[in-house]
Amino acid sequence: MTATLSIESLVVLAVLTPFAGALLIPLFRSAPNLRETVTLVTAGTLCAVTFSLLGPVLDGARPEAQIIRVAPGLDLAFKVEPLGMLFALTAAALWVVNSIYSIGYMRANDEPRQTTFYVCFAVALGSTIGIAFAKNLFTLFLFYEALTLSTYPLVTHKRNEEAVRAGRIYLLLLLGTSLLLLLPAIIATWAIAGTLDFTPGGILAGKAGAPVIAILLALYIFGIGKAAVMPLHFWLPAAMVAPTPVSALLHAVAVVKAGVFTIVKVAVFIFGVDHLSSLGQSGWLTAVAGTTVIAASIVALRQDNLKRRLAYSTISQLSYVVLGVAILAPISLTGAAMHIAAHAFSKITLFFAAGSIHTAAHLTEVSQLDGIGRRMPWTMAAFTIGALGMIGIPPTAGFLGKWFILTGAMQTANWLAVSVIIVSTLLNAGYFLPIVFRAFFRDPPADRHGPKLSEAPWPMVLALAATAVGSMLMFFLPGIPYALATLMMGR
Amino acid sequence: MNAVWPHLPILQVIVPLFGALLAGLLRRAGPAFAVALVASWLMPFIAGAMLWQVLTTGPISYHIGGWPPPWGIEYRVDALNGFVLVLVSAVGAVIMPFARRSVAFEIEEGQQAWFYCMYLLCLTGLLGIAVTGDAFNAFVFLEISSLSTYVLIALGRDRRALLAAFQYLIMGTMGATFYIIGVGLLYLLTGTLNLVDIAGRLGPEWTNHSRAIVAALAFITVGVSLKLALFPLHAWLPNAYAYAPSWVTVFLSATATKVAIYLLARFFFSIFGVAIDFRDLPVTEIVIALSVAAMLVASLIAVFQTDLKRMLAYSSVAQIGYITLGIGLANLAGLTGGLVHIVNHALMKAALFLAVGAIFLRVGTVRLSDLAGIGRKMPLTMTAFTVACFGLVGTPGTSGFISKWYLVLGALDKGWWVLVFLIVASSLIALLYVGRVLEIVWLREPLPALAQASDPPASMLLPIVVLAAATIYFGLDTEWTAGIASTTAKGLLGGLR
């Protein structure tokens, strides 16, 4: 079958697969085992289709598919380029793992409305692939909004007061920024450039003066609320009210990475790196990203709730990618692209571990975790690997992205960026290592009874072990992400 | 076929007119509904055939009774009114099947035949305004549609419907009077009532002594603005929509205001724009200012409504602001956006009000506080409702996005960045009122009172789903909406001085 499919139809198939899954899942609402099988088959198919595109893309193919012409010059169209490939691969691979984890988590915690949960999840993943493979800003924007709307029911999954309030913040901030800032930026780009296609070297160079470009860039950076650049980051901690599999895949990988991915895409393919650099846009961008990196880390230090601490860590790590863009050196952009993938594997591991602790021991606060490592050795070992990835210590993939970004900062003598990276590394260590220390080297509180060894259900442990191994594998075998990240710059 | 073909313009009006007569004579609900259904389903074929003819061979001119214009009444169809005729008749046809159950539920047995009679008269009036090329004939049809509308609103079960109908009667009569004063002034100036002829006779020589023209412009603008509920002349609309029978609200929101908007555009671009230089007068600026005020103020009022129907009524006032904004911008992108929003808003608002009607049938109330958790009881209805809500906000992939896209382009074309942000700000307010409803409808536990609620029968569900699907479809394929709107806008702007 696959042999007869053209590479173009594979692109369409990749985007459609999750949506097809979303249509099928409700049919099996009364048979949970079948329903979960549909989710797993869908995730597996998506993963296989995405990987089948990898070879051709590495060989230089850029498969395209035009779906419909919405208006003259406004197309719903897909085109796979290396950066999108990297993002799609990350999301697709982690969806398989996350689905296994979700099944364990949702059943062990006896969550209600599981059919809705899996449907929205599939739609969210389909939107993510749509963002990754978008050929132009219009297509990207369409799926960007679809991602917000499809994850809203997941954030409000618990349906209690707290969840509904969090949902409000989530929707208002994400849709608000995109309606108020991103949409005008996109339409203005269209008015100036006459196209919205992602083009190597950008489409705006020489078409507008420096002030207009600076305003547009600001509209994009703050309009892409999913990147959680401060002060528009509140939605992310609020979203932590969702079930942990949602926080893990969507609010550590798909949604937030869609944000920074869009920023990288816009910087490279709409503005053009050389163009931005010649206009001297690096300074304020570095300051904005650097502030977010440091400030979010400081806030993370003070969070006792584990998921909230992870959320602030995500905000900080996302701005590493923005920082990689702000430095405006090719090598730092390579680093930014790699960091998208590397952070995904590490952060999902950390969330998996948090959910596993919640499920097995019903603990949510960092201060409760004394001695938990002895009870849940697999979980906490994986957590440790994830934490090392956050700090950027070998042998984890987090090291690579940071290394390239730092190299770029030094090449361009951007000392502000250099110091941000160094200080934030210390801060990262400051809020992650104490957790590891507590878990392994402190005695469990005397009043805690229960079995000595009680891990979470096996699907969850399997999932978190897989992502932990994945983040180490990416350090030892960085070939694919590195190749894609360098190909992105068109070299 | 050949015998019918040249007479399409008059058939567009005659068929519903005689249908009204027949429905009134039949006196019984079932047969009257059948007549209304047949007449409504014939309309889109007639309108579609005319639009096709216009787009392939140019405007149609039909002389009533064989009297040539300007002595006789001319029916004249070009791209602009061809487009409006198709919209009005298509919406009428799609929503008609819904009427049977809804009307049977909300209106007394003995009055149902009169209801269909009044509906067909109203349809006659609206299609007549659109098809005629004669200023006075348009007034006659305006009155036919208005008088039948007053009756339709007054048929509402709630006694406040009488007050709402009376309020609309006062305002509507003022509007019609203003309109006819304006037409009278034009007749004094030119000695003709034929629209094309008026435009032809108001040549360049009028530029320097155009006070009478300006007065006519002012009277007609205010008069028509009352009918189309341009802010701040919208006061009649929320009550009328809220207390009218459910199906009447659907029909009015999708067609009546849209036809009035057509009339405004016709006078602006085919008559006054030809006669005088708009740039010397603050007309477009006033229209833009009022439109923006509508978009922001009416949306804000909508946020605080406790009644779903009333909330959607205020949302209509705001959305009409989008359309008149496009007319006020008067450039290609802006006018395209305004014209395309006539269609897009009609389709999504019809879907929303239909869903409200379905809720009323099942629950007997549309107070927001009584609808907690209705989404899980009426999943298909409320999914369609939700899709149409996204259209109001202008999410990409829905038709509302297309309208917004062109309007923002129109504002950028003028270099008005502030206006750009006002447009997107109003869609953010739309998100507030829409989000509030969706939260109540989907995230709350269903109330015990809703235990028996379920999706309505297929005859009601299908129109809702079709219109919601159209909201998505016309967000992705705009050849038949924005494409025609753009051609029309080009034609209208090309005629301006």
Topology:
The complex is a heterodimer of chains A (491) and B (497).
Chain A: H1 7-24, H2 32-58, E1 64-71, E2 74-79, H3 82-108, H4 114-133, H5 137-155, H6 161-193, H7 210-223, H8 235-238, H9 244-271, H10 273-278, H11 282-301, H12 306-327, H13 330-361, H14 372-375, H15 377-391, H16 398-411, H17 415-441, H18 458-476, H19 479-488
Antiparallel strand pairs in A: 1-2
Helix pairs in contact in A: 1-2, 1-4, 2-3, 3-4, 3-9, 3-13, 3-18, 3-19, 4-5, 4-9, 5-6, 5-9, 6-7, 7-9, 9-12, 9-13, 11-12, 11-17, 12-13, 12-16, 12-17, 13-15, 13-16, 13-18, 13-19, 15-17, 15-18, 16-17
Chain B: H1 8-26, H2 29-57, E1 60-63, E2 74-77, H3 79-106, H4 112-131, H5 135-154, H6 160-190, H7 195-201, H8 211-228, H9 236-243, H10 246-275, H11 283-303, H12 308-329, H13 332-363, H14 374-377, H15 379-393, H16 399-413, H17 417-443, H18 458-476, H19 479-494
Antiparallel strand pairs in B: 1-2
Beta-strand segment tally of chain B: 2
Rg of chain A, rounded, reads: 21 Å
Number of strands of chain A: 2
Terminal residue distance of chain B: 41 Å
Sheet-strand content of chain A, in percent, reads under 5%
Count of alpha/pi helices of chain B: 19
Oligomer: heterodimer
Major sheet attributes of chain A: 2 strands, antiparallel
The proportion of residues forming helix of chain B, as a percent range, comes to over 70%
Mean of residue pLDDT values of chain B = 91
Shape of chain B: globular
The strand line-up of the biggest sheet of chain B is 1-2
Low-pLDDT sequence parts of chain A: none
Number of helices of chain A: 19
Radius of gyration of chain B: 21 Å
Major sheet details of chain B: 2 strands, antiparallel
Mean pLDDT of chain A, to the nearest integer, reads: 88
Structural category of chain B: mainly alpha
Helix and strand element order of chain A: HHEEHHHHHHHHHHHHHHHHH
Tell me the fraction of residues in β-strands of chain B, as a range: under 5%
